[in-house]
Design brief:
Layout (H helix, E strand, L loop, with lengths): L4 E2 L1 H8 L3 H9 L6 E3 L2 E5 H14 L2 H7 L2
Antiparallel strand pairs: 1-3, 2-3
Length: 68
């Protein structure tokens, strides 16, 4: 995966999640990407920035509450 642009499958592998999770999060607007025709593509640097922001917002207390 040396390309800067990733497919759904490549992003799923990168994030270690199922492709269905990538599709669902993209449709809900929870994951930054672009739809080109019927294809969805993701820029690696944008995803890395999104991960950084999400990790700053991570709150172990909120996580524990949502798991119950």
């Amino acid at each position: 995966m040396s390309s800067e642009i990733m497919t759904v499958k490549e992003l799923a592998e990168y994030l270690k999640v199922a492709p269905q999770t990538v599709y669902r999060k993209f449709r809900r607007g929870e994951l930054p990407g672009a739809k080109i025709g019927k294809a969805i593509r993701f820029k690696r640097d944008v995803i890395d920035g999104w991960l950084r922001v999400m990790s700053y917002r991570w709150d172990p207390k909120r996580r524990d509450e949502s798991c119950h």
